[in-house]
Amino acid sequence: MQLGRREIASRYRGSVMGILWSLLSPMIMLVVYTFVFSVVFKARWGIGGDDKASFAMNVFAGIIVHGFFAECVSRAPGLMLQYVSYVKRVVFPLWILPPVVLVSALFHSAISIAVLLVAQLLIQGFVHWQVIALPLVMLPLVLVVLGVSWFLTALGVFLRDIGQIIPVFITVMMFMAPVFYPVSALPEAYQGWLYLNPLTPAIEMMRALVLAGHLPSVGDYLLYLALGLACALLGGLFFRRTRRGFADVL
């Protein structure tokens, strides 16, 4: 936890506005995306209403999920290079570095979720009590991101080009998930393909929970949780197997 606090503090060290940027950055992007997709492209959701405020909350929920994923994945390939001095220390548990970044990303996501809930309270006058289940609902996504982070952190040591591919990968993951549009907006023949993106179930579950008060079905949740556990296990195993070669390469 101490490393996590240091990670969060170092991000805003020397900044005039400090941690306020964690609020302003997503809110600025929210305004831009809401205008583009609700006014220019006239996209609509069935959850929470069809007004622009409801549209903004739907988009914001998707941005939170994707932003959490993007923050962890974008940093993972260069993590060992950033902490190269730790690689030489045999006693230092290198496996803990991706979770440290994940804790920092969770902190920023929690701030964004708080903003979303306050907005819902101000706009709709209430917050669904089911939101208390949000940490449990988001657990599978955390496990998926942790596994991917371990994998990319290890791969980034041996394949430096991965850092150039990741920004494209993150963008593809954003537009191939229902961040700016509902799954129902696609032709039925293509809707199933969106669920190959592990962000899709998290976005759909979060929207349904926060904006409509609907808990996910037990079957869907357990399937997503199994995917998360498998991803974390495989990513951790890959990191452990390749860890011995880090010092030689770096």
Describe the structure.
The chain is mainly alpha-helical and 250 residues long. It has one domain (2-249). Helices cover 72% and strands 0% of the residues. It is built from 12 helices and no strands. It has helices spanning 2-12, 21-40, 52-75, 79-82, 84-87, 97-124, 134-158, 162-175, 188-194, 199-212, 218-242, 246-249. Helix 3 runs antiparallel to helix 8, helix 3 (52-75) packs antiparallel against helix 10 (199-212) and helix 7 (134-158) packs parallel to helix 11. The longest helix is centred in the middle third of the chain and has 28 residues, at 97-124. The two termini are 27 Å apart. 35% of the residues are buried.
Helices, strands, pairings?
Layout: H1 2-12, H2 21-40, H3 52-75, H4 79-82, H5 84-87, H6 97-124, H7 134-158, H8 162-175, H9 188-194, H10 199-212, H11 218-242, H12 246-249
Helix pairs in contact: 1-6, 2-3, 3-6, 3-7, 3-8, 3-10, 7-10, 7-11
How many distinct helices?
12
Instruction: Give the termini distance in whole angstroms.
Output: 27 Å
Tell me roughly what share of residues is in helical segments: over 70%
Strand percentage: under 5%
Question: Mean pLDDT, nearest integer?
Answer: 84
Give the domain tally.
1
Q: Which structural category do the helix and sheet elements fall into?
A: mainly alpha
**Major sheet:** none
Shape call: globular
Helix and strand run: HHHHHHHHHHHH
Radius of gyration: 19 Å
Given as residue ranges, the uncertain stretches (5+ residues, pLDDT < 50) are none
Number of strands: 0
